[in-house]
Design a protein that fits this description.
There is one protein chain. About 50% of the residues lie in helices and about 15% in strands. The chain is of the alpha+beta class and about 160 residues long. It has two domains: about 70 residues, no CATH class; about 70 residues, no CATH class. Strand 4, helix 4 and strand 5 form a beta-alpha-beta unit. The longest helix has about 30 residues. The radius of gyration is 44 Å and the shape is rod-shaped. The mean pLDDT is about 80. The structure holds zinc ion. The site of zinc ion has 7 residues, from loops.
Length: about 160
C-alpha cells in the first residue's frame, strides 16, 4: 500500500491509499479517484510535500535536541556510582572475614577444645578445681549467660559459616 497526497483542480488537498503507483495512475485515468470536497475527478499528486515536511521535521527535531543538549549539563555516568559501593562492600566483607578468621585462630591457638563440656570446665576452673588454662568449646546462650552471671568471664568466639563443621 502506498499513500499519496493528492490535489484537485480547485486545490483541495487530500490523501488516498493505493495498492501501488500503477494502480494510482489507472484509477485516476478511469476517474475513480475524486476530491472528497468538490467531487472533482481532476486530481493529481501533490508536490512532494510529505517528504519535504519529514526532512524539515527531522531538522527541527535535531535543532531542538541540540538546544536541549546545550542547555542540560552532561549527566553523570550511571554505572560507576552503582558499581563502586558494591566493590567497596565486597572488600570490607573480605577484610572482616579475614579479621574474624585471624581472631579465631589466635583465640584457639593455645587453648584446649573441651567441646560441649565448656560450661563445666569453665566453672571448675573458676572455682579452682582445675588449673587455669585457656579453653574453648561450645556453650548455649543460656549456659554462657549463667557463667557470666556467676562472674566467670566468657567470650563468644566468632565463627564463620565455612569454619563450622
Ligand atoms: Zn476539490
Amino acid at each position: 500500500m502506498i499513500k499519496y497526497s493528492l490535489v484537485c483542480e480547485s486545490a483541495h488537498g487530500f490523501e488516498s491509499w493505493f495498492p501501488d503507483s500503477a494502480s494510482y495512475d489507472t484509477q485516476v485515468k478511469r476517474g475513480l479517484v475524486e476530491c472528497p470536497t468538490c467531487q472533482s475527478k481532476q486530481v493529481s499528486k501533490a508536490m512532494m510535500a510529505p517528504a519535504i515536511s519529514t526532512s524539515r521535521r527531522k531538522e527541527a527535531r535535531r535543532e531542538a535536541m541540540q538546544a536541549v543538549a546545550e542547555a542540560t549539563p552532561a549527566p553523570m555516568p550511571e554505572a560507576a556510582p552503582v558499581q563502586q559501593p558494591v566493590a567497596l562492600l565486597d572488600e570490607r566483607q573480605q577484610a572482616v572475614r579475614a579479621m574474624i578468621r585471624e581472631l579465631h585462630e589466635k583465640l584457639t591457638e593455645n587453648s584446649t577444645d573441651v567441646g560441649s563440656s565448656f560450661p563445666e570446665e569453665a566453672r571448675r576452673m573458676h572455682d579452682g578445681e582445675t588449673p587455669q588454662r585457656s579453653i574453648h568449646g561450645q556453650a548455649t546462650f543460656e549456659e554462657a549467660k549463667a557463667l557470666v552471671e556467676e562472674g566467670i568471664p566468657v567470650l563468644p568466639l566468632p565463627t564463620l559459616p565455612d569454619d563450622r563443621n
